[in-house]
């Protein structure tokens, strides 16, 4: 009994040590010809929240060591200088790596627990992510539909054979294998789903119609594989998947209900973690680029069903921070001086559709758009619409000369001392910048088309026609 009592503390200590080891991974190593005096590891503890955690460690001579807390398997990014590589981690891994800073990927080698998985990940990246023959762009997108499918089938078969051959000699964990299978499956699915629109965009050809059965593979995808959460290709595929069906239902990306339609596609077609991930991704995009009213509806629905408290809090905070500057929210009012000398406010134009143009008289691209802007104004003559041009110049005399010499039409306003405040309130990074504001002073578009786009005036005329129809 005495021996057991003496042994018990040691057993408890051993057990506690094992638990601690399972909750972290250790990465250490040596660098020949380092590119900087530190390394950085970027992790995403919650794959649904795009908030990265950076772990920076300084080199001690040419060596380093870092500990990474883990709750489960994770794919992280290791950065050194301008070089970056994915690292696969599981609790308990003790990786030792060596590389030449000047030939990062080609010389990167791992040893220790987790080495087999990461050495293969380096080889996989070098081959399937770097070699041009395996890429969709620039050449394989030129293939016809059948040839493109054959290319994807060949690539996937080669990926599977490569993994099987490697694992037969250097065993890898089941979780790692599942992660790579998810990457293979959903990179295939994403590339096939994107084939027709990407071909149209890259080759400047008419959008071709998919043949019967081209998308039947979508019915056979394993959307519930736990390892999908680790796969960047899965997250990217979900965006393409919901967007594709939303567009098939008639909701293009420019449609105010595009994100809402995508959200409903996820609700109707997906289950479990796939639905959660898809809807979270759609909400994040809608908060930044979508219509305020629809975003609010989706957020209420999502948080009423999601049990992920951290994700719910993140989405609510993001929505709160962005709702004052979103499609459907009131455009910030301002009062500025006209070229005639009197003052006018944005709110004075309520009842009219407003095309708001921020520009400067010394901006080259702004000058190039001026003739197109005059044509747009001419096409809107007699309509309940106004083109409001706000110059962010500091030299009023230079602005006046430009307006008068070019005989610029539309409302011409000078920002002067209010320029800095306007730039902040309208989140202006550069000029020209264009906004479309409805008759009630709410944003229709935060990135309206440039005057040189044939669709710029069409967007406005279509809005006016729909509004007129709604009044009857």
TrEMBL record:
Keywords: Cytochrome c-type biogenesis, Disulfide bond, Redox-active center, Signal. One of its GO terms (biological process) is cytochrome complex assembly. InterPro entries: AhpC/TSA (IPR000866), Thioredoxin-like_sf (IPR036249), Thioredoxin_domain (IPR013766), Thioredoxin_ResA/DsbE_sf (IPR050553). Residues 325-469 form the Thioredoxin domain. PROSITE patterns: THIOREDOXIN_2. It is found in: Cell envelope. Pfam families: AhpC-TSA. GO terms for cellular component: cell envelope. GO terms for molecular function: antioxidant activity; oxidoreductase activity. It comes from the Bacteria. Residues 1-21 form the signal peptide. PANTHER family: THIOL:DISULFIDE INTERCHANGE PROTEIN DSBE (PTHR42852). This is Thioredoxin domain-containing protein. The lineage of its organism: Bacteria, Pseudomonadati, Bacteroidota, Cytophagia, Cytophagales.
